[in-house]
Amino acid sequence: MSLSYSATAAVTRAGLYRRIWRWHFFAGLVCVPFIFSLAVTGAMYLFHRQIDDLVYAPQMLRAQASDNMQQPSRLIAAALHSYPGRPKALNLPEDDRHNAQVDVILPDGSTLQVFVDPATAKVAGTIAEDQRIMTTVKHIHSLAIAGDGGKVVIEIVAGWIIVLMSTGVYLWWPRGRRVGVVSIRPGAEGRTWWRDLHAVTGAFSGIVILFLALTGMPWSVFWGANVNAWLTAHDLGVPNGMWRGVPKSTLPAGALGELPWTQQQLAVPESDDPHAHHKAVPHEASANDYVLLSHSGTASPDAVVAQLASIGIDRGYRLALPRDPRGVYSAIRSTGRTEDQRVIHIDQYSRNVLMDIGPERIGAIGRITEWGVSVHQGGEYGTPNLLLMLAGCLALIALCISGIVIWWKRRPTGRLAAPERRNSDQLARGVVLIAVVLGCCFPLLGASMLAVLLLDTLIAALRRRPHTNYQ
């Protein structure tokens, strides 16, 4: 009886192993191009500031470091004098090495980033916003370059990374073995060496890769958007109570530029002035009279910047300018450590602070999510954070390459060589439960898993037909 039971258990384990290996194989084969792209572009974007400084040094870096600074309105006027248009935002540098950046909307609707020396108000150069190298890298990373359809694909792939790491752990589990588990076995060659490299790399980097996949989800087009909305609705992100007495526009905050994740779907407040439609606003002014805007009844950028400095926001932020007579000034600090992130909306007439949102005013789950996003980008803990996330990206690249090499060395010429599926192979209840939970937590992943299951079942049924081979 015991021998029979042991034999049955062994057959069951072998069948489960084959099923999990098959799913790991197909998921990896289909997702490898996207995962490789995510890893390469992610590694690059971790160092986007350093790359920008290297590529765009003439525009971004000052000829001579200085702590002197012209009035903000002078910097904006200098940009408009050289490149007429509508000023969109002023980016004040966080150190004395960098130029200020004025975003100007040109007559054709495109945005030009104009870099101005803060000490001399001289234009150092320009970059077209949509042609900036790291902007392109970011769009490739999220597949935004392919539109919403590309974003959906990346969300599904991120979900499948979780599946790949989970199934990979099962396939790697020692089961009494010692060789090829935590180190490449001595003397290993060919496919064995690549298989050991794949297993050991996954074992040591799995937690970091899972973290990258999970903390990348907040940017996703379906899961991220819906979770963001749910957190806000339940006061777990930015509390709805902060809107009491504050007029709300139809402009989404995301239009102001890069924002902390919890605020990307919020509306922008409105300035409150009964005669607003009679007054000039900054984006309608020419370079010659931009510095005189305070006489029109609106607060000048100089006054707003001074006001922000008085409450501790003195450099290293983006000041989005009012877009129309109801618009507001919005000071945005969204990079670096979570505790330093802050968004302040100021009435353009009264200079009243309409909303001041820092991490202490965000719900617990929202703060945890913001922390995860910051660590994902390498901004929370300095250089060690950057290097750890870089290690995760490099490990993903190694897993992609080694996985393809293993398959290529294993496959007979002209065949796919997928792991065999037998009709008797069953999935354990625990595995099914994990799959169901993942599918419910990440709906696009769940839908794709169902599609794969149906396809695999269909292929198995067709293979049982005589004279048909889909292996």
UniProtKB/TrEMBL annotation:
Parts of the chain that traverse the membrane: 20-47, 152-173, 193-214, 386-408, 428-455
Pfam families: PepSY_TM
Annotated keywords: Membrane, Transmembrane, Transmembrane helix
Full protein name: PepSY domain-containing protein
InterPro entries, sorted: PepSY-ass_TM (IPR005625)
